[in-house]
Amino acid sequence: GLACFLSIPVDAMAKIISFATQKGGSGKSTLALVLAAPLATEYGLRIAVLDCDYQQSIVKTREQVDADNFEELLKTNPVAQYPYDVFALGLGQVFDFIDDPEKDYDL
């Protein structure tokens, strides 16, 4: 399964991976973050994580937990960047985001 989309050519059309269920606490946000990081850092793919959950767990993680660690990293590496982008979107905004030709993401 996983190897199939890890070999995506950079010039290929972007792929969409969704983690969706109505069950709270099932690990959707965690799974998305755990998958996004190596795809960005190890495989060099441009990743956009769209957090459409009303709780905004991924956005909160970036703002709280990741921000502290990132601040420390900047002390030793002033040009450091987050490995992937996170966007807080309502469900009605997802298709506009995906269809925007200005967005240049692999996944």
Automatic annotation (TrEMBL):
Gene3D superfamilies from the UniProt entry: P-loop containing nucleotide triphosphate hydrolases (3.40.50.300)
SUPFAM superfamilies named in the record: P-loop containing nucleoside triphosphate hydrolases
InterPro entries on file: CobQ/CobB/MinD/ParA_Nub-bd_dom, DNA_Partitioning_ATPase, P-loop_NTPase
Organism domain of life: Eukaryota
Positions of the CobQ/CobB/MinD/ParA nucleotide binding domain: 17-60
Protein name: CobQ/CobB/MinD/ParA nucleotide binding domain-containing protein
Organism: Tanacetum cinerariifolium
